[in-house]
Amino acid sequence: MTKTKPPQALSAADQKAAILREDRRVTSYDVAMLAGVSQSAVSRCFKPGASVSKATYARVMQAAEGLGYIPNAAARSLITRRSNTVALLISNASNLYYPEALSELSQQITRHGKRALLFTMQSESDVGEILNDVWQYQVDGVIAAAALSEAQIAECERRRVPLVVFNRHLRDSHVASVFCDQYEAGRMLAARLAAAGHRQFGIIAGPEESVVASERRRGASDKLLELGLPAPALAYGCFDYGSGAHGLRQIIAQLGRAPDAIICGNDVMALGCLDHARHELRLDVPGELSVAGFDAVEPSNWLSYNLTTLRQPIQKMALAAADLLASLIDAPCGGAEKRVFAPQLIEGATARLTPRPTALAA
Amino acid sequence: MTKTKPPQALSAADQKAAILREDRRVTSYDVAMLAGVSQSAVSRCFKPGASVSKATYARVMQAAEGLGYIPNAAARSLITRRSNTVALLISNASNLYYPEALSELSQQITRHGKRALLFTMQSESDVGEILNDVWQYQVDGVIAAAALSEAQIAECERRRVPLVVFNRHLRDSHVASVFCDQYEAGRMLAARLAAAGHRQFGIIAGPEESVVASERRRGASDKLLELGLPAPALAYGCFDYGSGAHGLRQIIAQLGRAPDAIICGNDVMALGCLDHARHELRLDVPGELSVAGFDAVEPSNWLSYNLTTLRQPIQKMALAAADLLASLIDAPCGGAEKRVFAPQLIEGATARLTPRPTALAA
DNA sequence: TTGTATGCGTTATCAT
DNA sequence: ATGATAACGCATACAA
Fold it and tell me: Which residues form the signal peptide (chains A, B) (predicted)?
């Protein structure tokens, strides 16, 4: 009969027996047994910077390799209180801009040795229900590309889950956040277009419940008001291509004619507006009508468009968000740092950005 | 002195003490204490379909509510061997097509009560390293929008992690998968264009390491060969906009003139090719040159383009993938079901799809 | 450096 | 229907 520990047992046989016979997954105990060390020794081998002798490390690693052992994150997180997981809250991608953000954020989160757990939602108003799902996963932190209410932010704090708000400026609350100043961006675009001599504006704003959309709209409106220009014609869309054409028609109906310039709440609507103007209304853009958007999504740069738009430095923002969250995770005491990025004007060729030569000059 | 359990103690005080005093997170024990039941009773209340009396259920839930208790998924998964998590392997989104797939897949995974853990990679060849990360998270399953090697598939099996391959047809292996037949799609497109009288073709294929890209290319090439048409001029791109222009230039250089039709490995390259042809080479598309792509990404449908392309039913595919994985998770015995979807031709207006009126007809 | 023993928070098994 | 108790797989304090 084989005793429990025959000194010269075939380790290969042991291993095969352990792994093949049972349905069980291999644990650190299995590795320990095979390597002839204690379970804690195995554990230490997988903890960077733990004190293990070279010899045991080698034997443990060999055994682990042989068994295909990988530490169980669930068990580990139970004791370390770290899941190496970050919740990524993001509203659905009809925007064509979120995919880029999503990809960048995922990338950056990975750089910090964590993985993104994806929580997509149809509308930003679904955040509430989503959050309840988030908690049980014991994420180390949350990056929210959505507007949270004060109560929701408070709950994050209460649960001691670090939170970084991405691309949303929650003015009054002191939560960590990374964003472009959309209000300022709206002002900037309006100012630039006004300086070029445009007087009658149209604005195709994004959905009313979107903070980004309303900031952009407010910024533009306020600036135009300050400059003493006529009130802009206003239409609302839902950030999609079709909204651009629809918004343009509404604005023309309101004014009885095409405006001098149209500011769209994002690029996709701007492209829709542009195409409708050019291909269906036969308007000369930018000769008769200037069109501008926000985001500098990839297609805005294509030869057929070359859209005038404001770029957000998404990559830098994603980097900042991940870094900020990581620092918050490491030192939960950290204050509510806000990192503001400046949008960059892409001049493009769909808006006239210099004054027309005047008749006087002739 | 207060005893351990004073019958008429202030439950509110107890609760505050428990939650405020310590840094600890609230556990089912806390809830049990507050509700005056055993911990296992609490556990049962959070398990759908367990046998609990209405009375205790109510008291437990009230206590849980008061404490903000949420079951800890890590602890749960340790014993249930379910993390309610699915790994989503996806190569980076320069493709402009993956974002849609990603969003849909996430959506559908959620429908099954699970969440997507995101593993993005720069290139499909990174799958190997990524997989090692995947295992430790104890995911319930894997959806891979990338090509896996036989060894990698075998490892999934060995670890008993259900796997569904998305949008990749691994011909020889019997792994569960959901895909369009890209080879057939390539043939279909080539056949249709050839029937319209195009003779000299150019192909701007996607990256050589992409299975999808090479299937499309092979399909088109094979069909042209079968039809006895001249060998197509071939260029390779990396699925991005710039590759379209670059590929077109290469092909023209090879042939000494523009081909009759160009088949591009995806829409983004097709749009790049189209724009280059129209705006820089001043070619009439589809008068002098037909251009077609694959995927029917959103911009392909915009007024400026109206691209001839083949649509993949991504939503249906995502639904199928999630369902398939879910069934595999519930019944690991399941065979390697494959679900093939047919691409749908979007006729568009960038390729001539009917024969030219012949001189004879005049 | 190494091994022993304990606990993380839950579910599951078994009595009652 | 309910409560005691034993896992689940790992990390850590402590003793050696």
Answer: none
Q: 0.85 cut: is pTM over it? A: yes
Cβ atoms of A146 and A93 closer than 8 Å: no
Q: In the CATH hierarchy, which top-level class contains the domain A80-180+314-343?
A: alpha beta
Rounded to whole angstroms, the Cα distance separating A74 from A137 reads: 10
A:B CB pairs within 8 Å: 138
Confidence of residue A15 (pLDDT cuts 50, 70, 90): low
Beta bridge partners of B201: B261
pLDDT in tens, A72-129: 999 999 999 999 999 999 887 556 577 778 889 999 999 999 999 999 988 778 899 9
- Asked if strand C comes closer than 7 Å to B22 Cβ, the answer is no
| B339, B177 contact by CB (below 8 A) | yes
Strand C: which bases are under 7 Å from protein Cβ? Answer: 1-5, 7-13
Stated as kind and residue range, the H or E segment containing A235 is strand A233-236
Question: Residue A103: what residue type?
Answer: S
Residues 6+ apart with CB under 8 A from A316: A341
Neighbour tally for B331: CB within 10 Å: 9
A80 touches chain B (CB under 8 A): no
Contact between B78 and A72 using a beta-carbon 8 Å cutoff: yes
Q: Say yes or no: do domains B80-180+314-343 and B182-312 share a fold.
A: yes
The CATH T-level fold of domain A182-312 is Rossmann fold (3.40.50)
Q: Write out the two tokens for A331.
A: 């030192």
- DSSP state, B53? -
Residue A322 CA to residue A218 CA, distance in Å, equals 29
Q: Are strands B338-341 and B308-311 parallel, antiparallel or unpaired?
A: unpaired
Q: Answer left, alpha or beta for residue B348, where phi above 0 means left and psi between -120 and 50 means alpha.
A: left
Residue A223's alpha-carbon distances to A49, A195, B77, B94, B163, in angstroms, are 57, 11, 55, 36, 55
Residues whose CB falls within 8 Å of the CB of residue B204, separated by 6 or more in sequence, listed in order: B235, B236, B237, B243, B244, B247, B248, B251, B262, B263, B264, B265, B269, B270, B273
- Where do the domains of chain A lie? 7-71, 80-180+314-343, 182-312
Q: What is the residue-level pLDDT of chain B in tens, covering all 362 positions? A: 333 333 334 445 555 555 555 667 899 999 999 999 999 999 999 998 888 999 999 999 999 999 999 999 999 999 999 999 999 998 875 565 777 788 899 999 999 999 999 999 887 788 999 999 999 999 999 999 988 899 999 999 989 999 999 988 777 778 999 999 999 999 999 999 999 999 999 999 999 888 889 999 999 999 999 999 999 999 999 999 999 999 999 999 999 999 999 999 999 999 999 999 999 999 999 999 999 999 999 999 999 999 999 999 999 999 999 999 999 999 877 677 899 999 999 999 999 999 987 655 44
| Cβ contact A117–B119 (<8 Å) | no
CB neighbours of A222 closer than 8 A, spacing ≥ 6?
Answer: A183, A186, A187
Q: Find out if CATH 1.10.260.40 is the number for domain B7-71.
A: yes
- A344 bridge partner residues: A311
Q: Decide if B82 touches A, using CB distance below 8 A.
A: no
* Residue B310 burial class via C-beta count within 10 angstroms: exposed 0-12, middle 13-18, buried 19 and up: buried
CB contact under 8 A, B138 and A74: yes
Q: Which of residues 145-184 of A touch B (CB under 8 A)?
A: 155, 158-160
